[in-house]
């Protein structure tokens, strides 16, 4: 069957749904029913969601939970988390409670610079290009005054522009590298608009520059775009206490626990296979808050993993040490976030989540997100180095299995009682349910 269709985007939402249901599903009525059951009953709100992207059919829901009892820099927070994975919110909450009685989390924004580039090809003498750049550098700033005026009023703007010679890696390849401060906005549109104006100025000024030959005047701009790698937009979060204060029910020997915990971190620092899973756990916490607050978790993910590889090998984002009988656990992570503009202003739940967080500035949100990642990592490593990761995770996963098999209330009670003293696995849970129903 030929499923190609022209002018699909011009169809109404109803027409798109009907076409897809008839072309791709054996039971078109069921397919349409599933799509429509996720529509919002508030037509105005549904229209808002429809206009976020193109060819919208429905809404794809994720659970929005909260992790209370976070003490960050002396302030209490309840952190919103949008995520589908079992045990993430529970783990974060458990870490918050653990560290809340041990001084809480400390967080500091180290830098907030963001970077963008004009990538271009120049076939000429490098010294001439360097002289040309210095001659016209001020014009990049003056040409973008209309774009930067409001940002400058908020304390942001263009911080610097540099010429980067990349010809050792690619023939005739150069960059204009610009650094920006965008305050409480993520700033993607602002940065990209400035970069595109830089590109126009670069080409126009080259045409009029007497120091270039005819060939050298022909600068070819390849693209102008911000970078999601933000190694100078860093936040640090940490916890610390005396080793003896780590003691609790599951940590009867705090000294042994601390040593084992530090060893687990060191393994993740030197072993990429472990580091990837280790950092994924951190991002369980980070992404959940980034998504809940209407920020771009794909950009954050890309930038974070590039940062984890900055020394030539993929490594742990978190670190730990024991010095003078003090246990310290910390993370430094790049986070380009915004609290104004984009979905943070449009999505009602994103606005709600930001209000829950006491309407933070972008640097304050960076601190909260970093803490969520550190808390998640602590919970995972505490489980791994004590009872094992599966005990808690599989008990949470048991709910998903019961939902999958549409267990009744009576069956749920029997299943939960059985697995209080038995190891949870998908196969074991399914077998138990089937035996119940014989």
The gist of it:
By secondary structure, the chain is α+β, with helices and mostly antiparallel strands.
Topology:
Blueprint: H1 13-24, H2 28-37, H3 43-50, E1 64-72, E2 75-82, H4 88-100, E3 106-109, E4 114-121, H5 126-143, H6 145-153, E5 157-165, E6 173-181, H7 188-207, H8 214-217, E7 220-226, E8 234-242, H9 254-270, H10 272-292, H11 297-308, E9 318-323, E10 326-334, H12 343-346, H13 348-356, H14 362-384, H15 389-404, H16 409-418, H17 426-436
Antiparallel strand pairs: 1-2, 3-8, 4-6, 4-7, 5-6, 8-10, 9-10
Helix pairs in contact: 1-2, 4-14, 5-7, 9-10, 10-11, 10-14, 14-15, 15-17
Characterize the structure shown.
The protein has 438 residues and is α+β, with helices and mostly antiparallel strands. Helices cover 50% and strands 18% of the residues. The chain is built from 17 helices and ten strands. The strands form three sheets. It has a four-stranded antiparallel β-sheet. Strands 5-6-4-7 form a four-stranded antiparallel β-sheet. The protein has a two-stranded antiparallel ribbon with strand order 1-2. Helix 4 packs across helix 14 and helix 15 (389-404) packs across helix 17. The two termini are 43 Å apart. The model has no long low-confidence stretch (mean pLDDT 94).
